[in-house]
Amino acid sequence: MKRNRLLAPAFPVIMLMLMTIASCTKDDKILNVRKGVLTPQQHQDRGFLIIAKEGAKLAGISESLTKLRVKDFKLKTANQELGLIRVQTPDPSFPEKARQIADVQSVVVDVVMNWRLPEKTFRASKPSQPVANAKLNNPLANNPFSPLQWGLQSVKAPQAWAKGYRGRGAKVAVLDGGFLLENPEIKPNIILTHNFIEGEEVQYHGIEGFSHGTHVAGTIAAIDDANGVVGVAPDAKLILVKVLNDAGSGAFSGIIDGIFYASNHGADVINMSLGGELPRKTYTDDNGTPDDPSDDYVVQYDRDVKDLIIAINRATLYATLRGTTIVAAAGNDAYNYDVEKRFITYPAAALGVISIASNGPLGWGINQDTSLYLPSIFTNYGKNFISYGAPGGNYSIPLNTQIVTVAGITYYEYVFDFIFNIGFWDEATNEFSYGWSAGTSMAAPHASAVIALLYGKHPRISPVLVELILRKSSNDYGAPGKDPFFGNGQINAGKAVSY
User: Fold this and answer.
1) What is the largest CA-CA distance in the chain?
2) pLDDT over 50 (residue 15)
3) Which of 13, 53, 253, 341 matches a 20 to 30 Å C-alpha distance to 101?
């Protein structure tokens, strides 16, 4: 096992590029933008979710489904607590037949999409001088790279730690793609892992060399060990649940299964730094076979899409009633969901979910005293959509390419306005490295970690009380009262643990 280190790219050139699923590979020197979009199921049959009527027994429904005599039918899972059955068949006649079965409320397509939000990522260079010697008036003496973690100051984590609250006893589930399970910054805090992706394992093996889930997990609970970075809740434990493949794609049912699994296995907090835009319209799913119209299926908004939302709401409400607080990223397309009618981002819009918008500084690499609370250029927003704000990074157009040195690292200024943490890996050499990422995916784990501090202080606290404390303790930036970019306010750990 090798320790994390900073890796130097071959030359300091940074580019912006748009990336949809399977469209290109990532170079270490490239700043990537990943777009969460609907994508057809490829090389597998279409999935469906059968939503049972409340209180119905699934055994009888499952038996009836197997007798429908549809093409290549597979009964995958049945969840009695949520009243959901997952099946697989390419036969477009299946839904109408299944809807005739007693106690079936609805049958919907198990939508597959790229849930990876369009973050920007950048791998750090090798520092020109020891980072440990750069203090920046930093109160976090133990961890040499913490001067680069302005997000800790944004959520007032040191103030919470000074009061003795570091997340001890709290469990945070991260639902994401693959994870770097041997990364020494998080390995001691991992207590459980689970995989819902067929043909892959929990361990990340993506071609990009950046494990999004590991960056998120490090932001939450990287250990305080005098090496590298530190999490907002360094004493919290991690439950790592793979619900997306290493390319960021997955079925809607995987998110539902992950929520159910995490809540049933003791998660106090569920973090979902992922999101997909569910269209508010009817569209055609070609089952991944565009040249074969025989298996095409029309996904109707008033039936399939709306009822799919019923399915995920069952999962989020189930977890909430079990005492699990759920946090999700708001998305990175700068949509105003107070007026946007074409689509909506899930799971952030699901019932009981705390939706987190992103904010961050501009010019922090030049002046570390600048404001940390500027709404991010990319964040989705809306009074009726955003619950709270948290640090996720920021940038301006055009990018600020002034060369600066911070904590011994010399780079373009705009990179320092991103969130610094673990997550990069060279599989060939098994070398870990640090780097920056910007997006609401980075804001959500800051919020989840602060909530973990509350569970550490109040082990039996309910999601309702968590919400009340967050409202009372958050800082009212932006327009007075609830506003589109900060919702009920900016997360503040130091004030939150005072309640």
Assistant:
1) 70
2) no
3) 253
Bridge partners of 88? 47, 74
Q: How far from each other are the two terminal CA atoms of the chain, in whole angstroms?
A: 41
Residue 119: predicted pLDDT: 67
Which of 212, 215, 253, 473 is an active site residue? Answer: 212
Using alpha carbons, select from 83, 86, 79 the residue that is nearest to residue 109. Answer: 86
Do the strands 276-279 and 343-346 form a parallel or antiparallel pair, or are they unpaired? antiparallel
- DSSP strand pairing (84-88 vs 388-391): unpaired
Domain ranges of the chain: 4-40+114-496, 47-109
3-state secondary structure of 66: helix
Report the C-alpha gap between 419 and 356 in whole angstroms. Answer: 15
Q: Which amino acid is at 323?
A: G
- Note the pLDDT tens digit of each residue in 275-322: 988 887 787 877 777 888 877 878 777 777 889 999 999 999 999 999
How many angstroms separate the CA atoms of 101 and 57, rounded? 12
Query: At a CB cut-off of 8 Å and minimum separation 6, what does 199 contact?
Result: none
The answer to whether 441 is a known catalytic residue is yes
More confident site: 113 or 56? 56
Residue among 432, 404, 468, 437 nearest 215 (CA): 437
Can you name the residues that pair with 426 across neighbouring β-strands?
431
Quote the percentage of the chain above a pLDDT of 90: 73
Better-predicted residue by pLDDT, 208 or 439: 439
CB 394 within 8 A of CB 417: yes
Cβ 499 vs Cβ 160: under 8 Å: no
Q: Can you read off the two tokens belonging to residue 344?
A: 């909506």
Token pair 């991944």: residue:
288
Helix (H) or strand (E) holding 445: helix 440-457
- Identify the DSSP state of 210: B
Active site residue 176: yes
Measuring CA to CA, how many Å separate 295 from each of 11, 47, 290, 341? Answer: 49, 12, 9, 29
Check if 295 is active-site. Answer: no
C-alpha pair distances (Å), 218 with each of 172, 187, 212, 375: 12, 10, 10, 23
Quick count: other Cβ atoms within 10 Å of Cβ 378?
A: 22
Distance (Å, rounded) from C-alpha 272 to C-alpha 148? Answer: 24
Q: Which fold has domain 47-109?
A: Alpha-Beta Plaits (3.30.70)
Q: Which amino acid is at 300?
A: Q
Identify the CATH homologous superfamily for domain 4-40+114-496.
Answer: Peptidase S8/S53 domain (3.40.50.200)
Catalytic residue among 28, 45, 110, 176: 176
Cα–Cα distance, 31 to 121 (Å, whole number): 5
Catalytic residue among 106, 253, 441, 473: 441
